[in-house]
Amino acid sequence: MSIIQRSIVQRDELNQELNELFDLKKAKARKDKTLEQQSNEALREIRHLMLMFRDGIPNVAIPVSDNESLEWRSESQQLVYVKDNHAQVVEGTTKETMVNLRPYLIQVVKKAKEFYNH
Question: Among 70, 93, 108, 113, who pairs with 97 as Cys (CB 3.0-4.6 Å)?
Answer without folding.
Answer: 93
